[in-house]
Recover the amino acids of this structure.
């Protein structure tokens, strides 16, 4: 029984120690938050560029099939941006509710 409890408890202790090491590092949580904010900002700027470029191309396109393709591309870009913006806050809220140690020390809300 002691061997079974040692095998079951040891990985949990190792996981808890390794995750707290990330939280206890000097600049690592801030770097992760900054990286997430940077990539989210670049994703939003990328969406704006793709949206404007597709709108510009759509104005000069006469073929209805190409227009449908451009509209699909714009919808796809919008879906990607929405996922990018929602993913961080969702992890922060769900991770804190589930008690994940990394969610306690890193805030992935991009604003």
């Amino acid at each position: 029984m002691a061997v079974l409890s040692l095998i079951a408890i040891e990985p949990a202790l190792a996981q808890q120690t390794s995750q707290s090491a990330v939280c206890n590092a000097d600049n690592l949580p801030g770097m992760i938050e900054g990286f997430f904010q940077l990539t989210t900002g670049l994703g939003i700027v990328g969406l704006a560029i793709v949206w404007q470029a597709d709108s510009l191309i759509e104005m000069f396109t006469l073929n209805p099939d190409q227009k449908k393709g451009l509209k699909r591309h714009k919808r796809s870009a919008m879906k990607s941006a929405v996922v990018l913006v929602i993913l961080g806050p969702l992890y922060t809220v769900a991770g804190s509710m589930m008690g994940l140690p990394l969610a306690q020390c890193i805030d992935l809300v991009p604003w």
Residues 2-6 have pLDDT under 50 and may be disordered. The CA atoms of residues 32 and 89 lie 14 Å apart. The chain is about 85% helix and 0% strand.
